Amino acid sequence: MVEAREVIFSFIIMVLATASASWLMLVYLRIARRASLLFFSANLLFIVSCMLMAARFGRSGFLIWNLADIITLVGFSLFSLGVRTLYHQPLRLYHYGLLAMTVLLVYPVIPGQLSSAYWFALTFSVFSSALFYFIARDIVAANRKRVGLVRSLLLGWPFVLAIGLNGIRVITQLSNVRPVYFTHNDEIFGVSILWFFIAAAVFFNIALVGQVLWRMIQRIQYQADYDGLTDLLNYRAFQRQLALVDADAKRRAQDFSVLVIDLDNFKQINDSYGHLVGDEALKHCVQTMAMATRQQDCLARTGGEEFSLLMPDTNLASAHQVAERMRRLVEENPLRYQGKRVPLTVSIGVASRALSPLEHLIDCADNAMYDAKHGGKNQVCVARGRGAPALAAVKTEPAPADEPTRAAHPKRS
């Protein structure tokens, strides 16, 4: 039995060493570098703790009992910090500080010997469950909006399972019932629990690799669909959204409208103030325009200084009101950057699906926007439809809106 334990411990250390090497390779390749470095460090700590635990047979001492468990818990803490780092979540160090203080108060009290195995099992299960909960909670919080609760739980399933198994372990320990996967006293490291350690080492790291890959996929999707400067949908993603809204409008027999918006005199802003101020002007314009939109509207950057707004369930008259409100907001909120006051205006073209076929809808709104440009800029022009001249509406007062507004454009999740 002792030889079997030694072989299994050696296998666990080999698995952890392989995981450490894999994480170190990701660090070298600059893939989720900070998170991968934390995961690499955690696996190194697990190797140290396994080497200490392997020396427990027939021995006593703070180093191989108390410190080994503490090192393992620190490794789980690094797992948790790595997940938060991966998803750019606040670290909330006070949670870990409170847990660390509790661990340092409790573990020195437990005698480092075989007769205390019951208390080591109980204490370790409680603290590790708390850390597994932190990890599972952060994975769910980072992915729930995008993939839903069930799928986000599946992304972190080894940690969810570990919480359940540790819960069973605590209950059985408190009930003086010997758990199936843990035995104490003379069988402190039975073969069953060692195989459980192997499974945990493998599946925890696989789950975390899955998180890194999933995060990479999200970033690739973001770069494919979003504009990096303004955090708005790009032209291709806007076209997909337009097709979805059109299909939904046909199914429900509802109208929708599109606004094409161009920032006036953008070249002069770049030439006069520099490209850095030009970028700030675009971001400021987006934030200002978004104040006139609803949550269901879709604002996208479809060109250098050109934007498009997709407005579901909105007829031409209502879209015209929104366009006027948007034009006025941009005019009344100039960019203030490093002591400079940069006036901004926009020219807007409005088109409705009810008057234009889908394949010409953007062109109609775009032509109306150019009519606003040619009419003196800082205007709203409404397209009558395909082949009809646009109706100009120069600085008209907007009618009161029935729809609630939002303070900023929607961010990606």
TrEMBL record:
Keywords in alphabetical order: Membrane, Transmembrane, Transmembrane helix
Catalytic activity: 2 GTP = 3',3'-c-di-GMP + 2 diphosphate
Pfam family, one: GGDEF
Residue numbers spanned by region Disordered: 394-413
Keyword Transmembrane helix recorded: yes
Domain GGDEF: residue ranges: 254-385
Keyword 4Fe-4S: no
Gene3D superfamilies documented for this protein: 3.30.70.270
Protein name as it appears in the record: diguanylate cyclase
Organism (species): Fluctibacter halophilus
